[in-house]
């Protein structure tokens, strides 16, 4: 097992969505206890911001700005992100399908817990560039996420031919895979995240919100699969965080989960507001650091961002291709990031949006 963290859920919740003792704001605490997303504070005016011991300057005023990491496609974007964030040698790389979202979503937490990247592959072939990236990172082990219908034995054999040790965490379907990943990564978990295995939209920010200490398990809309319920019971959580609204995870499923542990729902009016609500809760009290930005209209970049975000203890926020939703803008104002990393090319997130994002990056000077 990679982690065996267990703590008293009512005396502090020492977990990645920030301990309630001191770190979480009143609004986020209300969200945790009631399932209502924390209200966004009115954003301060852009520009220089004074504090007691430092001056904060918006990077647009200082010549810096948001960084774009992209490649010619989703596979090359994942490779580029791994190169940028995982500079130190890594022993293990996680490999998931770039054609469907569920296995990479569940696996991002396992990768984050192992300080490892998630790379993407097609079902029946893996690119030479991805194989070369694995080699250049110094990895000697690849963990394939999903069964042969997601990543075929052809890809597995290509990895073996490179002299790599190959393990697979699979199952009969995406729900079994998510349960198997959680079981391979955690003995117990004080908090478990549950997200839709049918719709990517609300689930995309769950991995970064869960962090290194909490698994992400998948559910159907109306019913939680038995294999998932069994795994959650085995993890003995004190809280279950459901990501997404009732159109994604219905109350009938929540009732099943409530029989195991207290359920908190984190959601917003849409996928963008949901990503902001997850960040508001999971990163309450955090200022500075890195924020990852991914498309809310195309899922792959957000999935590969999750493992990198977990490594850097950072949120993933979603934007439209040509606009920053107001809910996301408010969260960016609150987070005051030192660095904003945008995943994907200009057809995924426009240059205008990247320019707008640059205004939220803060430079701290003494």
Description:
- The structure is a single chain.
- The chain has 366 residues and is α/β, with parallel strands linked by helices.
- It has a domain at 40-69 and 269-366.
- Helices cover 35% and strands 19% of the residues.
- It is built from 13 helices and 15 strands.
- The protein has helices at residues 26-34, 74-85, 102-113, 128-136, 153-160, 174-185, 206-210, 226-235, 251-258, 271-282, 300-311, 326-335, 351-358, and strands at residues 49-50, 55-58, 67-69, 92-97, 118-121, 141-145, 165-169, 191-196, 216-219, 239-243, 262-266, 290-295, 316-319, 339-343, 362-365.
- The strands form four sheets. It has a four-stranded parallel β-sheet with strand order 3-14-12-13, with helices on both faces.
- Strand 8 (191-196), helix 7 (206-210) and strand 9 form a beta-alpha-beta unit.
- Helix 2 (74-85) packs parallel to helix 11 (300-311).
- It is globular.
- 53% of the residues are buried.
- The model is unreliable at 1-63 (pLDDT under 50).
């Amino acid at each position: 097992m990679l982690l065996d963290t267990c703590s008293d859920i009512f005396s502090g919740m020492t977990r990645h969505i920030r301990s309630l003792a001191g770190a979480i704001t009143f609004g986020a605490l209300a969200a945790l206890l009631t399932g209502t997303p924390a209200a966004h504070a009115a954003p301060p005016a852009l520009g220089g911001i004074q504090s007691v011991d430092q001056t904060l300057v918006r990077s647009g005023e200082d010549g810096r700005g948001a960084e774009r990491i992209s490649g010619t496609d989703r596979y090359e974007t994942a490779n580029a992100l791994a190169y940028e964030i995982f500079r130190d040698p890594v022993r293990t790389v996680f490999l998931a399908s770039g054609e469907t979202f569920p296995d990479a979503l569940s696996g991002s937490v396992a990768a984050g817990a192992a300080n490892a990247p998630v790379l993407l592959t097609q079902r029946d072939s893996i690119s030479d560039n991805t194989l070369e990236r694995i080699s250049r990172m110094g990895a000697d082990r690849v963990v394939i996420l999903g069964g042969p219908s997601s990543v075929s034995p052809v890809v597995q054999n290509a990895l073996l031919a490179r002299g790599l040790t190959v393990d697979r965490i699979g199952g009969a379907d995406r729900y079994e895979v998510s349960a198997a990943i959680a079981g391979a990564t955690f003995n117990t978990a004080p908090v478990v995240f549950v997200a839709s295995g049918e719709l990517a939209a609300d689930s995309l920010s769950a991995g970064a919100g869960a962090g290194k200490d909490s698994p992400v398990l998948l559910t159907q809309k109306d019913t939680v699969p038995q294999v998932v319920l069994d795994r959650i019971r085995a993890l003995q959580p004190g809280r279950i965080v459901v990501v997404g609204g009732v159109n994604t995870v219905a109350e009938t499923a929540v009732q099943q989960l409530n029989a195991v542990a207290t359920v908190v729902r984190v959601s917003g009016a849409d996928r963008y507001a949901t990503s902001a609500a997850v960040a508001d809760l999971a990163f309450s009290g955090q200022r500075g650091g890195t924020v990852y930005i991914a498309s809310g209209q195309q899922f792959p970049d957000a999935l590969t961002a999750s493992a990198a975000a977990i490594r850097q203890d950072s949120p993933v926020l979603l934007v439209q291709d040509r606009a920053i939703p107001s809910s996301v803008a408010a969260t960016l104002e609150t987070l005051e990031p030192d660095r904003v990393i945008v995943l994907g090319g200009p057809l995924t997130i426009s240059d205008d949006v990247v320019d707008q994002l640059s205004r939220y990056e803060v430079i701290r000077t003494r």
